[in-house]
Amino acid sequence: MKVAIIGVGLIGGSVALDIRAKGFAQQIVGVDQNPQNAKEALQLGLVDKMVELDEASSADLILLATPVSTLPGLALEVLERCSDPTIVIDTGSTKQQICKAIAEHPRRNQFVAAHPIAGTENSGPAAAITELFHAKTNIICEREKSSSSAVQGALELFEILGMKTIFMEPLEHDRHAAYVSHLSHVSSFLLGQTVLDMEKDEKNIFNLAGSGFASTVRLAKSSPQMWAPIFEQNVEFLSQALLEYIMHLQRFHYHLMKHDTPELLRIMSQANNIRRVLDGIELKQSTVRTTDPSLKDVTDKIQ
Amino acid sequence: MKVAIIGVGLIGGSVALDIRAKGFAQQIVGVDQNPQNAKEALQLGLVDKMVELDEASSADLILLATPVSTLPGLALEVLERCSDPTIVIDTGSTKQQICKAIAEHPRRNQFVAAHPIAGTENSGPAAAITELFHAKTNIICEREKSSSSAVQGALELFEILGMKTIFMEPLEHDRHAAYVSHLSHVSSFLLGQTVLDMEKDEKNIFNLAGSGFASTVRLAKSSPQMWAPIFEQNVEFLSQALLEYIMHLQRFHYHLMKHDTPELLRIMSQANNIRRVLDGIELKQSTVRTTDPSLKDVTDKIQ
C-alpha cells in the first residue's frame, strides 16, 4: 500500500514509523509546507520521499496530520485531487469544523474523521516515536457518512497502531475533549505562566520544584502553534470548561480564606475519585498489549 | 545510631528504608497514633518496633514526619522529653509555623527545621519507597538557630538520602513553596473536580483522556488530610498565588473569546519557558547519582 502523510510532525511521523515497521505500507511519501520539517523527516527516514500535494493524492491512503486550522481547506483540496478508491483520514483534535467543511463534498464517503488520542508535549519530525499510539483510544466521528470500505481501511490502520476505536458524534467529541484534554492544557500553560511570572530568577523554581510540579506543568511545554487553533475551534466548549474550572478555584479560595477545613477536605476527597479513572487509564496503557478482546475485558471492568 | 521516626507514612517510611539500607541507623523505632499505620509499618519492616513517644524520645535522632498541623505541638512535646544530645528534625512542607512554635524553647538549638522536597501522590506506610529522596533538594530553615552539631547531624542524614541541602528563611520558603508546590496541588485537585463534575459517568474521561490529562491531574490523588493543613498554614501566600493563577486564567479566557490569536500565542510561548526549568529538574534527578560536586556542576550550569 502507498501511504501519503501530510504533515510529518509528531503525529504523522509516529504513524509513519509504526506502519513501516509493521509492513502496513510499502511506500510512504510525505508532504510538508515547512522546508525544515521536510528535510528532517527525510533525514530521520520517516518517509521515503517528500512530494507535492498532487503526487501525494495518488496514494491509497492519505493521512492528514497538520494543525486543525489547516484541516478544513486541506481536506477539500485533497478530496478534489484524489482518485476514487483513495481513503483520506484526518487526525485533528477537534471534529466539528472538519466534519462541517467536507459535509457536502461529493467524495465525503472516502473521508474518515478521526482523532487518535495520543501525543507528547514535543512536536516536529524529531518528536516522532514508535508505539506512540499503542493501547490508546481512537475516535471516529460520523461513521455513517464514510463508506464501509473507508471505515474498514481506517480501522485497519488504527489497529496496526495498536489502538481501540470508538465512535462518537463530532459535537459530543468536542464537548468531552474540552474538559478532558483542552482544559488541562490551558490549566498547565497558565500554571507555568503564573509561576514564571512570580519566580523571575528561576533559581527558586529549580530549588523548590518537585516531581509533582513537573507533572502538573508538563503540558505547558506544548506547541502554541498546534494548540491555539484547537482552542479556537473548540472555543464554546472550552470557554464553558474554563469558566467552570475558574469557579471551582474561586470557591476553593473562598473556603480557604474562611478556614473552612471540612469543606476543603470534602472538595479534595471528591477530587480523589480521579484516582479510579487514572488507574484505569494506566491499566489500559500498561497491561493491554495487542488483542482487542483483552482490551475490551479491561475497559469493561473499569467502565 | 538509634533513630525514631514519628509518623511512619510515605515520608517517614521512605526515610526508614534508606537509612537502614545504608547502615545509617542500627535501630529504628516508630511512633504513630494510627493503629493501622503502626501495624503496617511493622509488617513492612519499615521499623524494628513501634513505641510510645516517651520511649522514642531517647533516640539519638528523632524525625518528625506527621501532617503539618500536628508539628508545632509535637515538636514541643518531643523537645520536652528528649535528652541533651538528641537531634530533632521535622520534615514539614511549611516552615513559618513550626519555627515560630519552637522559637523560645530552651532546646531550640537541638532542632533542625527541614523540608526534604520529595513525595508521590500516595500516602501511608505502604507508599514508602527506597530512594524517594535521591538527587532531590532539601531545605533547612533558620540554620543559625540550630547548634552546629545538630545541623551537621541533619546534613549527614540528608546526604545519606542523596539530597542536596540549601538554606532559606521560613518566610522565603513558604512564599516560594506556595507557587511551586502548593498551587500545583490546588490546580490539580480542582481540575480533577471540574472534570468529574462534568463527566459524571466517567466513561468519557476514560475514553478521551490521554497521558497529558493523567499527568496534569495526578496530584488530585494526593491525601486531603495531609494537604488541607499545608494550605491552611500557608494561607496568605497560597491565596496570593491562587488569585494570580485565576487572573491569568481569566485573561486567557478573555483573549480566547475575543479570538485574539496573537495574544494566545504570546501567552503560550511565554509559558513554554517552563521547559528550560523542567529540563533542569529532570536533569538533576536523572543524571546526578551520588557525589555532591557533580550535583553542584549540574545545578550551577542550569542556574
How is this structure best described in words?
- The structure is a homodimer of 303-residue chains.
- In chain A, helix 4 packs parallel to helix 5 and helix 7 packs across helix 11.
- Chain A is built from 14 helices and eight strands.
- Chain A has two domains: 2-168, Rossmann fold (3-Layer(aba) Sandwich), CATH 3.40.50; 173-272, 6-phosphogluconate dehydrogenase C-terminal like domain (6-phosphogluconate dehydrogenase C-terminal fold).
- Chain A is α/β, with parallel strands linked by helices.
- Chain A is globular and about 65 Å long.
- The model of chain A is unreliable at 287-303 (pLDDT under 50).
- An eight-stranded mixed sheet of chain A has the order 3-2-1-4-5-6-7-8, with helices on both faces.
- In chain A, 55% of the residues lie in helices and 12% in strands.
- At the A-B interface, helix 7, helix 8, helix 9, helix 10 and helix 11 of A face helix 7, helix 8, helix 9, helix 10 and helix 11 of B.
